[in-house]
Design brief:
The protein is α+β, with helices and mostly antiparallel strands. It contains five helices and 13 strands. A 13-stranded antiparallel beta sheet has the order 8-7-6-5-4-3-2-1-13-12-11-10-9. 12% of the residues are buried.
C-alpha cells in the first residue's frame, strides 16, 4: 500500500513539473517573439564589452575572417578628453560618441588571392555619423575611401605600387549615381535616388535601411539561447539578418548572396 502511495506521489510530481516546464517554455517563446526598439539593440551593439570575432563564408566555403570592435567615447563635462592617467576630482564623464572598427581578410576563391580590409565609422551620442573610412588592400594595390560629415566631402585614393591617384567629391555631386558611373565607365543605374545617397552619404548607423528588431532564440549546440534579431530588407528582394547577444556581441550575420558571418564562439562548440 505504501509503495503505491509513493509511486502515485512521484508520478503526480513528475506530471506537474513537466506541465510547468511546458508552460514556461511556450510562454518564453511568445515573450521572445515580441518586437523591441531598434535603438535598444543598436545601443547594445555599440556598447558591447567584448569584440566579435567572425568567420566569413560564401555558401559552404570559408572565405575569410574579421574582427568587429565597438568603442564608447567619453569626455569631461568641460569638453576635455578623459585620460587614463588622471581625472580632475569632481568632474563628470559624459558620452561623446561611439566608434566601430572592423578589420579582416578575404580570399578570392577562384584565384586564392588575399584581400585585407579595414573599416572605421564614428558616430555621435545620438547615433548620427561623423566620419568613416574604408581601406582595401591587395598588394601592391590599395583603395581607400574617406568621408566626413563636417566637410561633406568624399575622398578616394588608389595606389598601385609607386603610382597614386586621388579624387574628391562634394556630397552634392554624388546625388546622381548614373553621372558618377559615367565618370568611371560603370553601368550604375539611374533612379537609385535615396538608396544610393544613404550609402555614400549616410546619416546614421542604419544606413538608410528600415530595420526591425525582436527577441528570438538561437540554437547553440544542443541548447537555445536568447538573442536579439535585427532584420532589414533591401530593394524588397534581399534581406540582412543580424543575431545579437543580450550584451551586444554579434553572433551571426546573414547577407544576400549566401554570405554569412558566424562568431568564433559558435563555430568552436
Amino acid at each position: 500500500m505504501l509503495n503505491r502511495v509513493v509511486f502515485a506521489f512521484i508520478l503526480l510530481f513528475w506530471i506537474v513539473m513537466n506541465v510547468l516546464l511546458w508552460r514556461s517554455e511556450f510562454r518564453g517563446q511568445d515573450e521572445l517573439s515580441s518586437g523591441v526598439p531598434v535603438e535598444l539593440v543598436w545601443k547594445r551593439i555599440l556598447t558591447a564589452p567584448d569584440d566579435s570575432a567572425l568567420e566569413i563564408s560564401f555558401g559552404d566555403k570559408k572565405a575569410g575572417y574579421c574582427r568587429w570592435r565597438a568603442n564608447v567615447g567619453e569626455e569631461l563635462a568641460t569638453g576635455k578628453v578623459v585620460t587614463e592617467q588622471s581625472q580632475p576630482e569632481g568632474m563628470v564623464e559624459r558620452l561623446s560618441g561611439y566608434a566601430i572598427d572592423v578589420e579582416g581578410n578575404l580570399i578570392r576563391l577562384e584565384s586564392s588571392a588575399r584581400f585585407r580590409f579595414e573599416f572605421h565609422a564614428g558616430f555621435t551620442a545620438a547615433h548620427r555619423w561623423k566620419d568613416f573610412m574604408v581601406r582595401i588592400t591587395a598588394r601592391p594595390r590599395t583603395l581607400e575611401i574617406k568621408g566626413s560629415a563636417a566637410s561633406e566631402n568624399l575622398h578616394l585614393t588608389f595606389t598601385d605600387g609607386e603610382a597614386k591617384w586621388e579624387r574628391s567629391w562634394a556630397y552634392s555631386d554624388l546625388a546622381d549615381p548614373a553621372a558618377l558611373g559615367r565618370e568611371f565607365g560603370l553601368p550604375l543605374a539611374e533612379g537609385l535616388g535615396d538608396l544610393w545617397s544613404s550609402f555614400v552619404t549616410p546619416k546614421d548607423i542604419a544606413l538608410g535601411l528600415r530595420w526591425t528588431a525582436r527577441k528570438d532564440w538561437l540554437q547553440i549546440g544542443s541548447s537555445k539561447t536568447r538573442v536579439y534579431r535585427l532584420q532589414a530588407r533591401l530593394l524588397d528582394r534581399y534581406q540582412a539578418v543580424v543575431m545579437v547577444s543580450r550584451v551586444g556581441e554579434i553572433l551571426r550575420v546573414e547577407l544576400p548572396g549566401e554570405v554569412t558571418l558566424v562568431n568564433d564562439a559558435l563555430i568552436n562548440l
